[in-house]
Amino acid sequence: MQLYSIEAGNFKLDGGAMFGVVPKTIWNRTNPADSNNMINIATRCLLIEDGNKLILIDNGLGSKQSDKFFKYYYQWGDYSLETSLKEKGFHRNDITDVFMTHLHFDHCGGSIQWNSNKTGYEPAFKNATFWTDKSHWQWATQPNPREKASFLKENLLPMEESGQLKFINRGETMFLQNSELGFDILFADGHTEKQMLPHINYKGKTLVFAADLVPTVGHIPVPYLTSYDTRPLLTMPEKEQFLNLAIKDNYYLFFEHDAHNEICTLQATEKGPRLDKIFTFHELFN
After folding, report:
1. What is the pLDDT of residues 30-57, one digit of tens each?
2. In this structure, what is the dihedral angle of CA atoms 141, 143, 147, 152, given to the nearest 10 degrees?
3. Burial of 46 (0-12, 13-18, 19+ CB in 10 A)
């Protein structure tokens, strides 16, 4: 098995929305805001090369949305999924599986593209199977008013129409060991219904794709939640249990949204779980 950190592009979000009730004087230390109160956000993906499989975990916003859409999310920097894959020696058509932690547009927007004939939407990974959770799919395609703006039909329905969509077979468990894709999965319901966090054993370490349960280093304290969480009072116990297990079992957290930090470990303190050490992907695994 070989893992690759894939930068799919950066954008900006309102810092207050990303930290909810946490005062700006606190979150601004770890996630400094610009003059418009916007903070830098990454869409960092993980690529797993395992035998004949090439599995991409999440895929960013994509590029098919309107200019009006991107005026809200302020893309910045030079990263793109296409160039990042090329740097690692791969092409979109090489991807065999696309695993989506959840279906908010910044995690699955790259799954679908506007076709070259400009006649409609099509899968951006023509040889891949798209994986999600069945309960989450129903949640996303019949969205509540709070999340409706995050679940875009143009990101979802073409996956189903293509025949390339499959559901993870999890049964009733909240921690699925050795899934169809070869890694363990933790399910969490606070941010959105059945968000999936991959746990990957790699070079003697457990790397966990933290997705939106812990978006950045600044979100490590248990009460530091985003305003995007649909069930914040559920996120807190899910997050506390996860962070304590991360300390106990020495997880390495892989950050999807932290534009400045790729991976960290945690330590126990009197105030609860806190940051221990920060690593780049390269220094940790090369």
Report:
1. 999 999 999 999 999 999 999 999 999 9
2. 30
3. buried
User: Which candidate, 109, 108, 118, 98, places its Cα nearest to that of 164?
Assistant: 98
Round to the nearest angstrom and report the end-to-end CA distance of the chain: 14
- Residue identified by tokens 């699955």 is 108
Q: What share of the chain is helix, strand, coil (3-state, %, to 5)?
A: 25, 30, 45
Query: How far, in whole angstroms, is CA 2 from its chain's centroid?
Result: 19
Beta-bridge partners for 202: 205
The amino acid at 68: K
> Looking at this protein, which amino acid is placed at residue 124?
A
Q: Distance between CA atoms of 81 and 95, rounded to whole angstroms? A: 12
Tokens representing 203 are: 């070079």
* Nearest Cα to Cα of residue 124 among 102, 88, 98, 87: 98
The residues pairing with 198 across neighbouring beta strands, listed in sequence order, are 185
Q: Are 191 and 97 in contact (CB under 8 A)?
A: no
Cα–Cα dist 57/37, whole Å: 29
d(CA 204, CA 170): 26
Q: How many CA atoms lie within 13 A of 203 on its CB side?
A: 12
Write out pLDDT tens, residues 169-213. 998 899 999 999 999 999 999 999 999 999 999 999 999 999 999
